[in-house]
Amino acid sequence: MLTLPQRCAYHVYVNTDNLAELRTETLGAGVVKRATTLADGRDLIYYDDPETTLGAERAVDARTLDPRPETATMRLDVLTGDWITVAANRQNRVMMPSASADPLAPQTPDNPSEVPSLYDVAVFENRSPAFGPALAEALGTAPAAANPPRGLDDLEALGLGRTRTSVGRCEVVCFSPEHSGSFGTQSVTRARTVIEAWADRTAALSKLPGIEQIFPFENRGEAIGVTLPHPHGQIYAYPYVTPRTTRLLDSIDRTAPDLFQHILEFEQASERVVFRGEHWTAFVPFAARWPLEVHLMPHRHVPDFAETTDAERDELAPLYLRLLSGVDALYDSPTPYIAAWHQAPVNVGRESVRLHLQLTSPRRAADKLKFLAGSEAAMWAWAAEVTPEQGAARIREAIERAATEESLSPSTDGEVSA
């Protein structure tokens, strides 16, 4: 269901004697970016919808906050080469708060939340990060890392007892000021604003010292492990190339530098296509692991959101919402999922790794979930219960059903065809 944000739930007043200093910039699609900082020095960025009803001013964050936590430590698993972050500060995160205690809602006299003012979209540094806050001494916003990674070669070396500081950045992306919802419950205009924010943050984070990969994602539903019902996603900026992408780069080396183009053409010729637009195609992959798995891929090679065109972003907003509406129409209750936007690493694979979404859900029936047990969790050897062709047919039907229920034509919002 596509719904408009309901601002009437909030009555937030800005004290004109207590205004934040804002760095303002106009981005694509008429989105306005207003950057400031929170009371403990963390970055806070407002992204205003085009033709927003909000004013230009924002309140200062007047809270008294504890110092930022020390940056976590990474430990090397010498058996796999994976770096494991140990972030004890994340143990006490807020768990499913009420609307009156929502840390992502705009601040009120009774709720000293993370965002001082009413907003359309807001992005801020996570208060309990797995990576960061230390990046480099030059940033001057946090103590320098005592034992930072020393480049990709350093991180690839194997050895017992190896540790490094988990430099990086974890950001929260609030899609709406409302207490509950998801990306799929936003309007097309709001979705376009979020996409602009993803592109802007990808560009900015890629320039930070020590960052090797940027990952925007949304976790939706308690079955996935969500601890906040507020409509939001996250962006992780890693100090290494993730294990998933490392395996992908190896597959590209063993096949062809334009592997993604071959995959796209292979899938477009199959019965697994969910829909196809001018710039994007959604499909269930040939070797889908999960009961519900859909990929969404641009038609041209583009490494990340920062390098997409306005036309690609304009079409993506309604197409992505259409996909999510179909995912929710599969059952009588909202579908839990992970929406993972894979992007090329910052310094390697830019000409071969293509931006794409992998949306997965463990829900295999109305009242059943797929759990990763022995073979899959321990040996990474997967067995799928739903054929990809059946999965694609079900999602196509659900998208049509959702469009009918919303009195929308299946071919509107982007000239989509099955």
Summarize the structure.
With 418 residues, the protein is of the alpha+beta class. The chain is 22% helix and 21% strand.
Structural notes for this entry:
It is a single chain. The chain has 418 residues and is an alpha+beta fold. It has seven helices and 17 strands. It folds into two domains: 7-240, HIT-like (HIT family, subunit A); 245-405, HIT family, subunit A (2-Layer Sandwich). It has helices at residues 152-156, 188-206, 243-254, 259-268, 310-329, 374-379, 388-405; strands at residues 23-26, 32-37, 43-48, 73-77, 82-86, 121-125, 163-165, 169-174, 213-220, 232-238, 273-276, 280-283, 292-298, 337-342, 356-361, 363-365, 368-369. The strands form three sheets. Strands 1-2-3-6-8-10-9-14-15-13-12-11 form a twelve-stranded antiparallel beta sheet, sandwiched between helices. Helix 2 packs across helix 5.
Topology (SSEs and partners):
Blueprint: E1 23-26, E2 32-37, E3 43-48, E4 73-77, E5 82-86, E6 121-125, H1 152-156, E7 163-165, E8 169-174, H2 188-206, E9 213-220, E10 232-238, H3 243-254, H4 259-268, E11 273-276, E12 280-283, E13 292-298, H5 310-329, E14 337-342, E15 356-361, E16 363-365, E17 368-369, H6 374-379, H7 388-405
Antiparallel strand pairs: 1-2, 2-3, 3-6, 4-5, 4-7, 6-8, 8-10, 9-10, 9-14, 11-12, 12-13, 13-15, 14-15, 16-17
